[in-house]
Model the fold of this input.
Amino acid sequence: MKSSYQTFSYLNYPFEEVLKRLVRFGYKGVEVSAASECGTFYPSMLTKRKVKKVAEKAESLGLEIVSYDCELLPASGWNIASPYAKIREKTVNYINSAILVANQLRAKVVVVVAGRSLYGMDKRQAWDWAVQGFKKCSKFAEQHGICLVLEHLTLLEGNVVVTLDDLLLMIKEVDSKSFAALLDTGHVNVTGESVTDYVLQLGDKLKHIHIDDNDGKSDDHLPPGMGNINFTPLFIALKKIHYQGAISVEPGFGFSTDPDDAAQRGISFLRKYL
Done:
């Protein structure tokens, strides 16, 4: 298991400065958020020169870029389950562009979500559209040595893949070695499920983790240890399945004015287990 930090909360900082701070705190990995540098890390905004510079800087600091989160949220206009064919096509193309960015960053993982079915839509139709889209993207990901990891959401963010059963079924139906699961501990707490069940049932399909905390009522994205989640069973389960992936601390927007506080809290917490 590798300690990592998702850079969304550092969106107001130059990325080179972010990398230096994460190394100073003791992180071994970094998850690059497309929202970095005030939203300039989205695929359409990045140049090959910029990506190469970031990859080389991380390598020179001994920091592994473990994943790229393209921030694929329905509220931003990306929805692989949309009833509109043009939106679905645009979303597939966007994911594929994120795969190319991840490849250039030397990351092995791209974070994706299954979007949202709209009011009055047939939920099964939305599901089928998501499966079809992810099949296309997974084929492209396999060609570039990337694994897409599907994140289960809370109902505030999406309604296609929310529960463990949703996550397991989507992975089964997409049926690709380049399509796996992301576990978000805060989302599990909000939906009232068991984080241990996620780990044990996903097994080798679990390829990435977002670790964050809350009170079980809202998805606050607090650093671990600031909410009411008991994380000890999580790490016991991870050792049981011999999990080898990254664990990315993922604080929310509320920490963007003082992200160092969240980063320090995160690494101090992870040191208890890693």
Observations:
- DSSP finds ten helices and eight strands in the chain.
- The first helix runs from residue 15 to 25.
- The chain has a mean pLDDT of 97.
